Fold:
Amino acid sequence: MAYQDHIIEMSQLIKSKHGTWDGVSAEAVARMRLQNRFKTGLEIARYTADIMRKDMAAYDADPANYTQSLGCWHGFIAQQKMISIKKHFGSTKGKYIYLSGWMVAALRSDFGPLPDQSMHEKTSVPALIEEIYTFLKQADARELGGLFRDLDAARKAGDAKKEEKILDAIDNFQTHVVPIIADIDAGFGNAEATYLLAKKMIEAGACALQIENQVSDEKQCGHQDGKVTVPHDDFLAKVRACRYAFLELGIDNGVIVTRTDSLGAGLTKQIAVSHTPGDIGDQYNAFLDCEEIAPADIKNGEVVLNRNGKLLRPKRLPSNLFQFRAGTGEDRCVLDSITSLQNGADILWIETEKPHIEQIAGMMDRIRAVIPNAKLAYNNSPSFNWTLNFRQQVYDAWAKAGKDVAGYDREGLMAAQYDATDLGREADEKIRTFQADAAKRAGIFHHLITLPTYHTAALSTDALAKEYFGAQGMLGYVQKVQREEIRQGVACVKHQNMSGSDIGDDHKEYFAGEAALKAGGVHNTMNQFA
Structure:
């Protein structure tokens, strides 16, 4: 509803109360309504699911329309990210937020810092989703509040043209609320536990849930060793649990991202149930590392498979886990991905050990031969050494092409001495275009960095601590932080405004009129940053 329509509707309602509501301003109510567009998390989930579906269709039409996100571990971080995006690009289109289970474990658990092994409280995940959207809605309220103040100033100055321009900006305001792709880990238990948590996450506002095929009680970070997968039937039950949660809550367009860790997972806890040769359980078991045995060789308590009339004994580790044959990871990823898409998943996630476009594309070519519109969300992980990886890729390509690489040490290419070399520059250019290139070649619809703001917070704090507690003293803060905030127009330089003081002043005026005791007067030191 347009600004003026809100005012008209409220004016009529106030008038219908025969004078008892005359102390209420219709325009103030219109402003408060526009500043609080989303009343519930389900409204947000429904709105953002529609955005994702439109973006997915746009990508299918042209892979240049890929989307991106950065992982955020606090509502303030997400808020500042979206404010910056609007400032620099004028639009939030194609730019999402990723909620990383790794960062929830490391930064938001009541137990303190934890590894990414699903040991944190599962309730902390929906709590962070709700927190992020609270901060994004406050960013809306803050920016609209500024427009309302500009509108009042234009009216006071009698500037009709400016007034019309501001009214148009209000009516066409783009919200900071964008889709969150939220990590539900391996579901934190069985399918019922997954369903219950999925509901909480959706009610908090999540339109996209990312779930992985590791065993829940042995879950590991995607870039650590010791990963254990589950048979397809177990995983698909959790995928269906997420879909049921979406449908129960009326989010018919909800998005499910299924992640396979099979490339780096060499272990399974279970032998899959198989009823007929070639069924999905039989295909899973076919990857097991087995040895053929005779009936007389079967020992007490051993597990034996019957395949094509042969008795096969899967290799069992002292941990009671079974191992897959070496070199089967890519085949398992392809089967996992096809099976997921055939059973309700919308987007794939293949966790890799390095950012190599052709490796990813090789798997996606096989998947797309079965499901042509298959799409990936891809982790542009900080666990990769991007500099070394891409310099080695260029080195190998040069060596294969017969180009002279004698001046380069392949294992030592991380060294700063290579930064200004032809190899270093070519590698950097490949890193710069990686997302666009991979979107076009490897079917990557969504590029994300799981935990970048964990690293940026550490890096910026390290830089400040070094200067402030050293010889620079206060100049360390002024030069490295405040001066840059002012010159770059970073919103939170006005930290009182950012925390909501102006919004509070507006409300005080609505409620008490001229009697309001406001914080934003002439003596407010924030005015130094006007």
About this structure: The mean pLDDT is 93. Residues 265 and 400 are 31 Å apart (CA to CA). The radius of gyration is 28 Å. The chain has 19 helices and 14 strands.
